[in-house]
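haha ok so turns out i had the wrong file open the whole time. this is the CORRECT one, sorry everyone. sequence first:
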Amino acid sequence: MENRVQITKTPSWEIKLRAEMNKLSISERKVAAFIVSSGRELLELGISDIARKSGVSDATVVRLCRSLGYKGLKELKIAIAQESQEDQPYVRENRAVSVEDSPAQLKRKVMYACMEAIQDTMDVLDDKALEEAIEAMYAAKYIDIFGIGGSAAVARCAQHNFRKIGVRVNVCSDINQHYLLAERFSPGDVALGISLSGETEAVCDALDRAAAKGATTIGITGNRNSRMACTAHISLYSSSSDQLMPGDHTYERSAQLGIIDILFAGVAMKIRAEQGEAEARRQTASY
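then structure:
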């Protein structure tokens, strides 16, 4: 098994829980929130205790465990026990900032939360999906990146990086342009959509139209049960447990920028290898 470099260590059961959060019922989310907040204290509680503290029925607790892929509460407890809090590099804290925070506290909260989001995203990113995305972007004649609002900044960063290595790439962050750009696609092109929710209508519609024209679609999202995740040819997932402040997604944006950097590095290395092979052929031909 590959040894992982741990920037931080979020328990795998917690990552799994957050990945499933969007498809849980309201009552199941109450149990999920209680489990995350209680941590190892959960090991001392029975089903009825958890149900009572969460304000739900016993059946809801069991249903949540099964939604996460465990046979029941006992198996979930085993997973939690195996990832002891004492094994963590540091104790995970609340990363939300407040007006009382000093610069030193802001530094700790923001930097640690960014690292946690990157670590969590590294844990959930599928290597095969990354390989497929890199191959598609390397082979593409034309790449269009769709992102609105906060996702537009990630899209522009991607455009800046890929243009530096000579890749034809355009960014569309204007909702009124999405459909027009999608009409330009043809087989061999790539449409990359960025949406934390995976439900941004204009971005999803643009990917669907591009796919209908034969383009390969790639979605970067934090919601694996979203429309984008379900319809894109290739889905790349980000993950973050915290927000800088309510409604803000700074930390998960950091993780999505990390995904962009991986794609950029992968395509850049393929271009470099291609150039090296071409140079080798020229030198051979000159002898």
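The longest helix spans residues 250-286.
again sry for the mixup
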